[in-house]
């Protein structure tokens, strides 16, 4: 009898009950009135008194195993029925919404691709910077307002450690660590202590460009930027350079592109001027080259820096910069088809 009980136990444990019909067959087979277990209990009466204790325990365990199996299968099958009734078809393939690239990532990728095609490599620098790389080596005078607490997020005072306020800090690092020719762009996050509005944020993104070699001229800068503007905004885009000032470039300029929305006719994007500003640029100031260990008598170079948010806003006609940081699915979903 012991062997029989063990054989049944094995059978019960390995049997699968995954249909309502199977469940009833299983139940009747083992614990129905004429089932195997009542038959065993009947047989138990014939067991020798000295074996009763052992066999009794085994028999009860067997019965418990059947009851547990019935309970378990019942619960599983009821859940399944509930799912099916609720309209959930568990056999359907998983159909999740796929994510999409963030518009800022899309535009950064595009900028990198455009400059890669003309031989620019990509470099990065740290977001936490010292005063030397963010200001001093870049020719910022001691009392320049940009060093002020109002613009810069300081982490430590004397020596000054701060969140970089622009990617121009990477210019210095790349010049310190490389011999010319240098031809690179540096995408990255920058930080300024500004009130958040539709047009400004305390965290934003820039792409910096740096080209240093013998005989690099302003004409090279202009040609490079014109190529960029046409690749980014379309073949008919025109550029305009206005004189400007940055401590680290001389001469310096700001570049406008002809308004790609109205084609120069005048609209509210270009504020009826036909032009929109997209970046700052200039010839690297000889002081900066010398500060970073590059011989300014032998080498010249140009640099430029643009805000990724600004380019993205122009490209996709986004009116409020805060949308980039809110992660609202309704906004992000609109870029699903962009590559
Ligand atoms: N760093 C400047 C800014 O943040 C942009 C710039 C970069 C200007 C390189 C000239 C050359 O506004």
Describe the strand arrangement of the main beta sheet, using strand numbers.
1-5-6-10-9-8-7
| Largest sheet descriptor | 7 strands, mixed
Unreliable parts: none
Small molecules (ligands, ions, cofactors) in the structure: phenylalanine
* Structural class determined from secondary elements: alpha+beta
**Based on DSSP secondary structure assignment, what is the total number of beta strands?**
10
Count helical runs: 12
Give the CATH topology of the largest domain: BirA Bifunctional Protein, domain 2
Per the principal axes of the C-alpha atoms, what is the gross shape?
elongated
Cα-atom radius of gyration:
37 Å
Share of residues in strands? 15-25%
What is the H/E string?
Answer: HHHHHEEHEEHEEHEEEHEHHH
Would you identify the CATH architecture of the largest domain? Answer: 2-Layer Sandwich
Average pLDDT level: 92
Helix content: 25-40%
Whole-number total of structural domains: 2
CATH homologous superfamily of the largest domain, by name? Bira Bifunctional Protein, Domain 2
Can you identify the CATH class of the largest domain? Alpha Beta
Distance between the termini: 72 Å
